[in-house]
Amino acid sequence: MNIFLVLTFSGVALGAIYFLAASGLSLIYGLMDVLNFAHGLFMTLGAYAGYEIATRLPTSLGAPTLLILAIIGATLFGALAAGVTELILIRPLYGKPISQILITIGLDLAVVGLLMGGFGSTALQIPVPLWLVEPTHLGGLFLPNASFLAIGAGVIVLIGLELFLALTRYGIIIRAGVENREMVRALGIDVGRAFTLVFVIGGAMAGLGGILYTIVFSGDLVSPNQGDSLLIFAFIVVVIGGLGSIRGSAVAALTVGLLQQYTSFYIGGHSGWAQIGDLSTVLLLAVVLELRPRGLFGRVA
Question: Which of 181, 228, 252, 267 is the most buried (most CB within 10 A)?
Answer without folding.
Answer: 252
